[in-house]
Amino acid sequence: MSPHELPKVAQGVSRRRFVRALGTFAGSGLWWASGRPGGVPQPLWGAGRCGAPSPYSEATGEEVAMSRSLDAVETDPAIAGRPLVRYPEKTDLILLTSRPPQLETPKRYFAHAITPNEAFFVRYHILPIPTSVDLATWRLKLGGVVDKPLELSMDDLKTKFEKASVVAVNQCSGNGRSRFAPRVFGGQWGDGAMGNAEWTGARLRDILTAAVPKPDAVEVTFNGLDEPTAPSVPDFVKSLRVAHIVDDPDVLVAYEMNGQALPMLNGFPARLVVPGWYSTYWVKNLSEITVLDHEFDGFWMKTAYRIPDTPCGCVEPGSKPARTVPINRMNVKSVIASPADGTHARVGDVLKIEGVAFDGGYGVTEVFVSSDGGATWQSAELGRDFGRYSFREWSCGLKAQRPGPLRLMVRAVNRVGESQPAEPLWNPAGYLRNVVDHVDIQVM
Amino acid sequence: MKIGRLVCGLTLGLGLAVTVCLTARAAEKSIKLPDDNVMAQLKPGPYVEVVRGNCSACHSTDYIVRQPASDAKKWEAEVQKMIKVYGAPITEADAKAIVEYLATAYGEAGGKEKEVKKQ
Q: Which residue among A93, A128, A318, A324 is least enclosed by CB atoms within 10 Å?
């Protein structure tokens, strides 16, 4: 089965069809990485629901603190050898690159729906990046094909427009790129180029309306305070369609993140929030909005951040797409935050398997966990619903019944029946990775 | 907006001190970024200084050492992308030396088997 055929199976809108698809995958043996000794192991648990308490309840005592004999930073090849660093306003994050800075969130944070500001990942494209902003002089300028150009201070943003909030996932297009096979050039992220926060600010459509766009306005561009190293380097500018901004009241110019001012490295004093879309559009340290009467043809839209123009955004591994389109809405994804890869447990231990799941805005409705290579799937408990753009916590309590290696897998389904592929999708830029996540643990 | 008194915090990371300054009314925010990652040193080899001199102008060397091991053709494409797409001001002679270094130090064979050709 070629990778680009897989999503068709998972795109079925009915639950029944999805479950049937799971059975097909399990039967084909595609769930397991090739070369695993001993083939598909016997199921350790039957089908049904997880016996997990709500992720918001206190520990019952039945759950055990699993001994982590090895740290995930050391066992995961995606992040092996990368130091933990502490940047201004941030906690210890996994360093990808220092200049421009790219910092990754350790996976254990994804046991919780809200990612703390200090643990939120960082990604810049060009140098220099802003390291000092004075609100006395900072202005958000809005110009182009409008009747009333604006120059807004932070006070203007906070007092002239209704305050709006949305909980939304911000995920880098290239999250997981280091796991692509064949490998591709670009930021070699593990799984931590994502986070989820409550964003608060002014609705972009309210700001746009205040500027009174001319009737021929079609696109809007966004520029931040980061600047190109040399005039020959393309400035980081992104665009959205006017219709997107007008239709979606959750597109914000956010000045708060989880109730606090934004960290400098996450976009102080304001950033664009485009719920459901990859973070390349969430322009940080926002300073300039321009309304255009034509399609924007800047480098970061026309050349970079493009995906194959196919239903899955993927092509045969190693091949080139015939046509491409700008990357846009996120696909369905789920990750296992705990236990960490390489964890040791004992027979009889009740493992609390937990993580988050999300998609591009339909909302995750079900999460399934497997401990037998995908032969059987159990329905996980879902945590509080923070809205359709948010991480959804899930958890699953399973008893380790026999010694040996154990692979835990997770797969989410959204409101329209879309799910995750059993085999990774591939594209030349290393985007859209959402293959079923797994961790390997040892039962002693 | 009135600018308040500066309050600076000091934290330690990677052995380097970094500071965050905020005014009392949060009207101004300043940070100081750490130096480049000392753990991302380029492998020694001919032309390593050419690589450092050109590439480090726009990005730290961890951008290089983290990339997948690649043959000369792929590294050539990457260097040309930096020149033609990102506008890196690299001379033709330097570009040739950079590709030779990268294909050797970060080649598909891991950089051990191949000998660097001298000019």
A: A318
**Sign of the dihedral defined by the CA atoms of residues B11, B17, B18, B24, in that order:** positive
For residue A166, the SS3 value is: strand
Put simply, the chain A residues between 39 and 98 with a CB less than 8 A from any chain B CB are: 81, 83, 85-89, 92, 95-98
Strand partners, A288: A141, A223
Q: Return the CA Rg of chain A.
A: 22
Instruction: Spell out the domains of chain A, with CATH numbers in brackets.
Output: 15-105 (no CATH), 140-326 (3.90.420.10), 333-443 (2.60.40.650)
Contacts of A232 in chain B (CB under 8 A): 86-89
Identity of residue A409: M
ipTM: 0.80
Q: Which of residues 61-80 of B touch A (CB under 8 A)?
A: 62-63, 66-68, 70, 74, 78
The tokens describing B41, both together, are: 């040193």
**DSSP of A334-400, one letter per residue?**
EEEEESPTT-EE-TT-EEEEEEEEE-SSS-EEEEEEESSTTSS-EEPEE-----TTS-EEEEEEEE-
Rg (CA), chain B: 20
Kindly give the confidence (pLDDT) of every residue in chain A, 444 residues in length, as a single tens digit, with 9 standing for 90 and above.
333 332 232 332 233 333 333 333 333 323 322 223 333 333 333 446 776 443 333 333 333 334 333 344 456 888 888 999 999 999 999 999 999 999 999 999 999 999 999 999 999 999 999 999 999 999 999 999 999 999 999 999 999 999 999 999 999 999 999 999 999 999 999 999 999 999 999 999 999 999 999 999 999 999 999 999 888 889 999 999 999 999 999 999 999 999 999 999 999 999 999 999 999 999 999 999 999 999 999 999 999 999 999 999 999 999 999 999 999 999 999 999 999 998 999 999 999 999 999 999 999 999 999 999 899 999 999 999 999 999 999 999 999 989 999 999 999 999 999 999 999 999 999 999 999 999 999 999
Interface test with A, best of B16, B22, B29 (most A CBs within 10 A): B29
Do residue B32 and residue A264 have CB atoms under 8 angstroms apart?
A: no
The reply to whether A155 touches chain B by the CB within 8 Å rule is yes
The distance in angstroms from the start CA to the end CA of chain B is 62
Angle at B8 between CA B6 and CA B12, to 5 degrees: 170
pTM, full prediction: 0.85
Q: Among all residues of chain A, which has the CA nearest to that of B16?
A: A86
Residues of chain B neighbouring A229 (CB-CB closer than 8 A)? 57-58
Residue of chain B whose alpha carbon sits nearest to that of A124: B59
Distance CA(A116)–CA(A111), nearest Å, equals 12
Q: Which chain A residues are closer than 8 Å to B86 by Cβ? A: 232-234
Residue window 251-270, chain A: list those with CB within 8 Å of chain B: 261, 264-265, 268-269
Give the separation between CA A37 and CA A58, rounded to whole angstroms.
39
Q: Is A169 helix (H, G, I), strand (E, B) or coil?
A: strand
Structural tokens at position A78:
């995606």
